[in-house]
Design goal:
Elements: H1 5-9, H2 11-31, E1 33-34, E2 44-50, H3 56-71, E3 77-85, E4 88-95, H4 101-115, E5 128-131, E6 140-145, H5 151-167, E7 172-178, E8 183-189, H6 191-196, H7 201-211, E9 219-221, E10 226-228, H8 238-242, E11 245-249, E12 252-255, H9 256-259, E13 260-266, E14 272-275, E15 278-279, E16 281-287, H10 293-310, E17 316-322, H11 323-353, H12 356-363, H13 365-379, E18 383-384, H14 386-415, H15 420-446, H16 455-489, H17 492-497, H18 502-527, H19 529-532, H20 535-554, E19 566-572, H21 579-595, E20 599-608, E21 614-625, H22 639-651, E22 657-662, E23 677-683, H23 686-700, E24 706-711, E25 716-724, H24 726-731, H25 736-747, E26 750-756, E27 761-768, H26 777-780, E28 783-785, E29 791-793, E30 798-806, E31 809-812, E32 815-824, H27 830-844, E33 851-854, H28 856-887, H29 892-897, H30 900-913, H31 920-951, H32 955-986, H33 992-1050
Parallel strand pairs: 1-18, 8-27
Antiparallel strand pairs: 2-4, 2-5, 3-4, 3-31, 6-16, 6-17, 7-16, 8-13, 9-10, 11-12, 14-15, 14-20, 19-21, 19-22, 20-21, 23-32, 23-33, 24-32, 25-30, 26-27, 28-29, 31-32
Helix pairs in contact: 2-13, 2-16, 3-4, 5-10, 11-12, 11-14, 11-32, 12-14, 12-16, 13-14, 13-16, 14-15, 14-16, 14-32, 15-16, 15-28, 15-31, 18-32, 18-33, 20-30, 23-27, 28-31, 30-31, 30-33, 31-32, 31-33, 32-33
């Protein structure tokens, strides 16, 4: 029974259905979003807290620990990391795939609310949280520049006008204004003048709070009208604050200006930004984990004209870093590869079919299959990204294969005298089971990817579903639209019945010569089938050997590193560096970068780490390179050569510690401010961490493969430890609360009051003047008023001693941790780097309580390696089960699967020849080959079984005829698949480094499998038949013996 016969007999209706599919696919293509890679639903949340003046240890103990206790109870949490430095703590949580970010936001807010009772009361604002994406790379950076306005005014405009407008755009997770801080009235105390007047910093703080208030005063009414009462209770300018009366001493007023310098400035001096060499305020925009990066950036760009209208004419707002533009360029390159693949496939088919008619009928399956795939992608919320487009490029070979097989079978029947419609019906009936077998076995290859909940399977799921959808639709098209068109349009003339041209005659002679050569080789292999049966085992052994050699020589990386023309650089300095000196070093680092001929633009941030936290001894550079090429205005250098050249330039400046990393489309949260990779030493005993972290760091620096090696303990904060004589303090009626408050008011950059303006609020910051904090002795000269009202200098109850403390305190899953940061040589693979680190840590003989923990690239690589083995085995088992069900046989699926080792050996030979490392893309290629090469065996086995069953041929004659008849379509379909993959293997355009390993492996696997499986499949088919005959003979012999024995016993 032919299910597709009604569609074949009604070509007009079938054609209209095909047209509807094409139009639906075109509309879906227009609606599809664009992204670099599939969206990974990897929920992440960050809780951020500021307590100005607190050191890292205080933040870790009083803020991080209470928050972690409550946040750690949220269901579905995978990892939790906190980082505490001077004045701020961030707690970062990663959750398992599948968790709703909206629900997690509610859970996080509930945990914050529950922890408030345990947190310090002097927080300027409550803890705030935001959703984040693990890549840690902004989707867009904007700069605000002005020739007339200072940075603090630019910051106010950016924070009050632009920040809220962008935050409302769907897909935006966080908007952070960088390069300045909110305006503030700074009150810088003269501690000597204070003491001379008999005043303390506490007195000034209380005066500021009492004198600057904004509260309702009520209303007046005379019965006819009502009036609002307004008082001048708020202060706004430094002059107004300077005239405040702090106290009256000996009948003389003491005003604030007598004991302090009051100025207009910023909340702190650590924030600055530059675009190239111009001072700017930058806006860093991060997307939500589930949002589409390109759509988010496009929405922000669309909002820019409206935002420009809100700003003074002198202010320029300009996009300065946009990864999505590179994404679009890379996808255009893949689309070009798609078009080239279509052209190459069409050329191969035209050469083999030698007529335009059959070629066009076969090629119709390409746009229809792609259209169907677009509809499926749109309905599932997928995007046009590198992996989905690569899937479409590769599926061209699949979708044309089905049409080729169908057309070739129809033409064969027409050449034997059948009318076109009858030939189409008979041909589809003969070949239908084969097409279904090929399609179902391909689905089985990718079925294991539908299960699993990790980054590996999530990355490949969109690829596999897209490819599977295209192949399933192509099977339906090949069994309906293709024969319908053949039955109506194909004639013997269009199929090749007319007198061929000289070129066609030459092709026919070559075809016949190749066919005779194959026939002789086939007869030899069938005669030596006992020898050929070992070929799959030999090739399987060779595959494992070649895979080992490839990994040994070239290594194993999670993803190939692409050159998309962007670099991220991090400038690091000692923890206690002054803001002025840090700004000079950041500008010096940017100047060296701009001097390189490959660099186009550099955006520099001072005082902000990659996560957006405030770090005074760090600066970050986002570097945009010139386009790659040989024309004027382009760069001929590769990314790794540019980074090597820049590293040499920075090495000549000892005071600059710069870490450079290339930015790619896949950026995991492994990236830090000190290196592209890191790992952690984790322990419940913090005392063990510092010496062992420094020891492991020292050992890693001895290996040339690692660069920029550092740890959290390399940089320490210098601190003055104030030791209070509690007995003396008690005698003088001082308690620790009074002492802490006095120190905080004098040295803690305390935000003591709020100034309200029409559109924003800013702080009054209380601190000691810079000249009064130059020496540690200023601490002891601080006066505290005792409970009796007497003035007591701290020197009377305390002494100070210098010490050092880590500038960061790291917690991982509520245990103390120390991070070790590093970069690796571009030619040194990730798996070897991880193995070397493990060896270093093992040689260091760490105490039993210290564990090593990996994340980011190393963790993804380990998941890929372990999951790849399971995935391969699962795919082969699934395919065996499907084939066994289809053929109702245990032996025929093994004959079909015997083709796989040849493909694996060919893939690894090609990778070895081109020095291609193992990676996720190479694994995708191996999966593709599993689906492609078994098609050759299915075509032969199906034909042989039909010939045996319907035409009474013996197995040797049946498989021989199958191999000879199917030789031409098998060769054609293999060349078509190679033609589809060839543009990927050649590699061109942005992001080609990611696609190239896939194309190389597929071309190599197809080439070797085509040469070998055409001979091995018939031989193994016959060997299985011989084995079956021998088994039947043995069973018959045993049955005869049992019958003879029974007859003898009965006689």
């Amino acid at each position: 029974m032919n299910l597709f016969a009604p569609l074949i007999r009604r070509p007009i209706g079938t054609s209209l259905l095909a047209l509807g599919l094409a139009l639906a696919g075109l509309w879906a293509y227009v609606l599809l979003g664009v992204a670099a890679l599939p969206t990974l639903e990897f929920p992440g949340m960050v809780v951020y807290v500021e307590v100005p003046g607190a050191n890292a240890q205080t933040m870790a103990a009083t803020v991080a620990a209470p928050l972690e206790r409550h946040l750690g109870r949220i269901p579905g949490i995978k990892e939790m990391h906190s980082e505490s430095n001077d004045g701020s703590t961030s707690v970062r949580m990663l959750f398992n795939f599948g968790n709703s970010t909206d629900k997690l936001a509610r859970d996080v807010q509930a945990a914050i609310n529950a922890s408030m009772a345990d947190l310090p009361t002097n927080m300027p604002v409550p803890p705030r949280y935001y959703k984040f994406n693990t890549a840690n790379i902004p989707v867009l950076l904007l700069s605000l520049t002005s020739h007339t306005l200072p940075p603090d005014k630019l910051f106010d405009l950016a924070d009050t006008l632009i920040n809220p407008a962008i935050s409302q755009i769907p897909g935006v997770a966080q908007v952070r204004v960088i390069g300045g801080r909110p305006r503030a009235v700074r009150v810088e105390l003269n501690t000597v003048a204070l003491a001379a007047k008999g005043l303390t910093a506490n007195d000034v703080a209380n005066t500021l709070r009492a004198a600057n208030v904004t509260s309702p005063q009520g209303t007046l009414s005379d019965g006819a009208t009502q009036m609002t009462v307004t008082a001048t209770d708020a202060l706004h300018t430094p002059d107004e604050f300077g005239h405040l009366l702090v106290a009256v001493k000996n009948g003389a007023p003491v005003r604030l200006s007598d004991v302090a310098r009051v100025t207009s400035g910023q909340q702190d001096e650590y924030q600055a930004a530059w675009f190239n060499d111009h001072r700017a305020v930058a806006i860093r925009i991060s997307k939500r984990p589930e949002a589409n990066a390109v759509a988010t950036a496009d929405a922000v760009r669309a909002k820019l004209p409206q935002m420009r209208a809100w700003l003074p004419a002198d202010i320029q707002i300009t996009p300065i870093f946009d990864l999505t533009q590179t994404t679009k360029s890379a996808l255009r390159e893949v689309e070009i590869a798609l078009m080239l693949s279509v052209l190459m496939v069409a050329a191969v088919m035209l050469v083999f079919l030698r007529r335009i008619g059959p070629t066009l009928i076969a090629m119709i399956s390409v746009p229809l299959s792609l259209a169907g795939a677009f509809v499926v992608m749109w309905s599932l919320g997928y995007t046009l990204n590198t992996l989905s487009l690569v899937a479409l490029v590769l599926c061209i070979g699949f979708v044309v294969d089905d049409a080729i097989v169908v057309i070739e079978n129809i033409v064969r029947h027409m050449e034997h005298g059948a009318p076109p419609l009858e030939a189409a019906l008979v041909g589809v009936k003969e070949i239908g089971f084969t097409v279904v077998s090929i399609t179902l076995s391909l689905i089985a290859v990718f079925a294991p990817l539908l299960f699993g909940n990790n980054q590996f399977t999530m990355l490949l799921r969109e690829f596999s579903v897209t490819l599977t959808a295209a192949v399933v639709i192509s099977a339906i098209i090949s069994l309906s639209v293709t024969p319908a068109l053949c039955g109506r349009l194909l004639t013997l003339e269009t199929a090749g019945g007319r007198e061929p041209s000289r070129f066609e005659q030459a092709l026919q002679r070559f075809d016949r010569s190749l066919h005779r050569l194959y026939e002789r080789a086939l007869d030899w292999s069938m005669r030596h089938r006992r020898l050929m049966r070992w070929q799959p085992l030999i090739l399987l052994t060779l595959t494992f050997a070649l895979a080992t050699v490839v990994v040994k020589l070239f290594g194993f990386n999670f993803m190939p590193q692409e050159d998309i023309g962007m670099i991220q650089g991090d400038v690091h300095a000692d923890a206690n560096i002054s803001p002025t000196l840090m700004a000079e070093r950041a500008k010096h680092a940017a100047a060296i970068m701009l001097a390189d001929p490959a660099v186009r633009d550099v955006t520099t941030f001072l005082g902000s780490d990659r996560a957006g936290g405030n770090v005074g001894n760090q600066a970050t550079m986002f570097v945009d390179l010139k386009p790659k090429g040989g024309d004027p205005g382009e760069r001929p250098d590769k990314m790794k050569d540019i980074i090597a050249r820049l590293n040499k330039a920075y090495a000549k400046v000892p005071e600059l510690r710069v870490s450079l990393n290339s930015i790619g489309f896949f950026n995991d949260d492994d990236n830090s401010d000190r290196g592209s990779q890191n790992f952690e030493l984790i322990s419940s005993n913090s005392a063990d961490l510092q010496p062992w972290a420094l020891e492991v760091t020292r050992l890693m620096r001895q290996h040339k493969e690692f660069h920029d090696v550092s740890s959290d303990y390399d940089d320490v904060d210098k601190q003055q430890m104030l030791t209070v004589d509690r007995a003396a303090a008690s005698r003088l009626q001082l308690n620790m609360g009074l002492i802490d408050t006095a120190l905080y008011n004098a040295f803690g950059q305390r935000q003591v009051s709020i100034i309200y303006s029409d559109i924003t609020q800013y702080w009054v910051v209380l601190t000691s003047s810079e000249e009064r904090t130059l020496s540690p002795g200023a601490l002891l000269n601080t006066y505290v008023r005792s409970d009796t009202g007497s003035m007591v200098p701290l020197s009377a109850v305390a002494h100070i001693s210098p010490s050092v403390t880590p500038s960061f305190v790291i917690h991982t899953n509520q245990l103390e941790a120390a991070k070790i940061y590093y970069n690796i040589d571009p030619d040194f693979p990730q798996d070897k780097a991880t193995a070397l680190i493990n060896q270093i840590v093992s040689d260091a003989r760490l105490p039993a309580g210290i564990q090593i923990g990996y994340s980011g690239k190393a963790q993804n690589l380990e998941e890929t390696r372990s999951n790849a083995n399971v995935l391969m085995i699962g795919s082969i088992l699934a395919m065996y089960i499907v084939l066994g069900i289809l053929y109702e046989s245990l032996g025929h699926p093994l004959t079909i699967l015997s083709t796989l080792p040849a493909a694996g050996a060919g893939a690894f030979l090609a990778m070895l020849a081109t020095a291609t490392p193992m990676s996720l893309m190479a694994i995708i290629a191996i999966l593709m080959l599993i689906g492609i090469v078994k098609k050759n065996a299915i075509l032969m086995v199906d034909f042989a079984l039909v010939a045996q069953r319907e035409h009474g041929l013996s197995p040797p004659d049946a498989i021989r005829e199958a191999a000879l008849v199917r030789f031409r379509p098998i060769t054609m379909t293999t060349l078509v698949a190679m033609g589809a993959a060839l543009p990927l293997a050649v590699g061109f355009g942005i992001g080609s480094e990611m696609r190239q390993p896939l194309g190389v492996a597929i071309v190599g696997g197809l080439l070797v499998s085509q040469l070998l499986t055409l001979l091995s499949t018939p031989a193994i088919y016959l060997w299985n038949y011989d084995r079956k005959l021998r088994e039947e003979a043995r069973r018959a012999k045993r049955a005869a013996k049992r019958a003879l024995k029974a007859q003898t016993a009965a006689g």
